[in-house]
Amino acid sequence: MNGKQIGTLAVSMAALWTGPAMADRTPWTHLNYQDAPGDFRFAIVPDRTGGDYRGAFTNALAKVNLMHPEFTITVGDLIQGAKTEKELVRQQTELTNMTAKVKGPFFTVVGNHDIGRSRAHPPGYEQSNELMTSVWRRYYGEETYYSFVYKNVLFVCLNTMEGRNRRKLQVGITDAQYAWFKKTLDDHPDVRWTLIFMHQPVEWITDAWLKFEKEELLKRRYTVFAGDWHTYMHVKRHGRDYYLLSVAGGCGSGKSRENLRGVLYGEMDHITWVTMTDNGPEVANLLLDGILPGDYLTQATTLWSARTVLLDYPPDPAVAERLLALKKAERLRGGLLPAVDPSLPAKADLRTARVVCDVASKECVDAAVELRKTLAMVAGKNEAEADGFVFAVGEVPPGEAVSETECRAKFSGGRLCFWGGASGRGTLAAVRGFLERKLGVKRTGPGIEDVEFVQQVEMPVREGEEWRFPQ
User: What is the pLDDT of residues 244-285, one digit of tens each?
Assistant: First the structure.
């Protein structure tokens, strides 16, 4: 192609171009920043009652601090509750010590575990409501329901346990509280939105609530948030959005109350992230396991070793050694180890292999020692510090540490059981590949009695699968 042809082609391409002129092109879509003056963001932390399982409530508060909302609010049930003053004080003190670490303001709402119901059965709860209300007031002031305004949005925090005291006909929200609620709305007729926080959604099906909705709430734009049922649900009432939040440490409703059944059941540890706009609140639910700090993974903790070049400066020789060991482990299993949470290197997804051999067999013992060092390195721990890496001899329980030296001295001619574990689903395959290469599974290894793979947590192999070297 000559110069004249090139020039003709350029003119032809320019004639075909229908986009913006060259001067109008930019490497960005537009400059309409999402920073409207009235917009703001806040977090809602749900229920932690039933045992504060999984350390989720502490985790939730840490994640809130990571996200930097303007403030945090709850939908109640932040303590387990008790029938004695001493225990209630202990629980509220523990709670306030935890919430004091939240960077922004933290607004507390009454739940049925924070202030319980007075009842004849079981014994000891005859004045539960009165006692728990008294303790609540020591920590949070006289009023158990309140309101505040932020950027022209009215926040109303109700107490659905106020009327569950020793009165003959118990109710959730009392007539007095409804009167206060109406006055609060009347005092703020021009707010751009009203957000209501309460604990028990069962209030929504009462005649009193339905009457209040129709006569007072439908006059304005509003959204309601509740908890109590330990499941997430979005509800529409009169065309308005109502939300039931799940838990942040609260128990599940399945067979194992400690375990949650997942998002399709609405059972998950989460925080609710609300972005307030002129068109109303936009609600997002953030799973606690899905929020990771920026430094959650480093070259000292990653299971990825495609590149062993050190990026930190100054470089750490121990990290270089670990990455090389990790690469070696990957070769042993013939593929990459899947990533797991590095903050749980010795507990989560622990895979355990037991190698049983004659202590007189130096080849077997040396293989076990080398395997132990490799897996400990992969787990990001020193061999001496690695949880789940234990020598045990004969009938010694696997959790009891017995060193190789003690083994040889005390159990001369006996059996050495080597237990090794490391994070990642590939550990079992790595052990298998290592033993195939090091000891030879197609023949009887020297002094080897058997090799077993046992299940400690969950494994992607058949439960109880055993490997034995042929005799």
Answer: 999 998 887 655 556 788 888 888 899 999 999 999 999 999
Closest of 419, 93, 53 to residue 252, by C-alpha: 53
Cα distances (Å, whole numbers) of residue 239 to 111, 219, 264, 384, 418: 26, 13, 24, 62, 64
How many Cα neighbours within 13 Å face the side chain of 26? Answer: 5
Looking at 237-338, list the stretches that DSSP marks H as alpha helix, in order from N- to C-terminal side.
317-333
Strands 146-150 and 72-74, by their bridges, are: unpaired
Domains, the chain, in order of start with CATH, read 40-290 (3.60.21.10), 317-467 (no CATH)
Residue 65 phi, psi dihedral angles, 5° rounding: -60, -35
Residue 429: HSE in the Cβ half-sphere, 13 Å Cα cutoff: 17
* pTM of the complete model beyond 0.85: no
Phi-psi region of 195 (alpha: psi -120 to 50; beta: other; left: phi over 0): beta
Query: What are the E-state strand segments in 305-381?
Result: 351-358
